[in-house]
Write a structure and sequence with these properties.
This protein has 2 domains: 31 residues, no CATH class; 96 residues. The longest helix is centred in the middle third of the chain and has 35 residues. Helix 2 packs antiparallel against helix 4. It contains 5 helices and no strands. The protein has 161 residues and is mostly helical.
Length: 161
């Protein structure tokens, strides 16, 4: 719909001023910004991987903050994966009602493995944890496994010669 002609000099002045102010903005938006935008659905947004906490220097606050945000995003993704696996197992149990113990064995194993791995990484950290606490947990677990063997297998026995 074409713009109506101004009825008087005041409207003509304001239309001219609007064209002078809005024209360059519209030009830049249509010719530069929109052709260079990446179009993707908001739910498939891809974040670049940032350095992990062990790659950050002690005094690099920006790197630490980015690593913390990446850790939180990773935790949300792993929570959703666990939720999907749990729903798959529940659906399998409902569908295969009397024989679910045999027919849903693979789905249950997959869910239990994912749960174990989630707990190894995020379990026992408390409600308000960050990437540094998770990194320290990983470090302490590795030290324990070096000294005593895998967690849950009992402690190594001293070999007497």
């Amino acid at each position: 719909m074409p713009e109506a002609q101004p009825r008087n000099i005041v409207e003509q002045f304001f239309q001219t001023m609007r064209g002078m102010l809005e024209g360059p903005v519209v030009f830049v938006r249509e010719k530069i910004v929109e052709p260079n935008q990446q179009h993707y659905p908001w739910y498939h947004q891809k974040f670049r991987r940032v350095p992990t906490i062990d790659q950050c220097y002690n005094d690099d606050i920006v790197c630490y903050t980015e690593a913390n945000f990446q850790y939180k995003r990773d935790k949300q993704v792993e929570n959703e994966i666990l939720s999907i696996l749990r729903h798959r197992f529940e659906d399998c149990m409902m569908y295969e009602a009397p024989d679910h113990a045999e027919k849903c064995k693979d789905v249950l194993k997959q869910y239990e493995d994912a749960t174990t791995n989630w707990f190894i990484k995020y379990g026992d950290l408390g409600a308000y944890h960050n990437v540094k606490m998770a990194y320290m947990k990983q470090k302490h677990r590795m030290i324990w496994e070096r000294r005593h063997g895998p967690v849950g297998s009992g402690m190594k026995q001293e070999e007497n010669e």
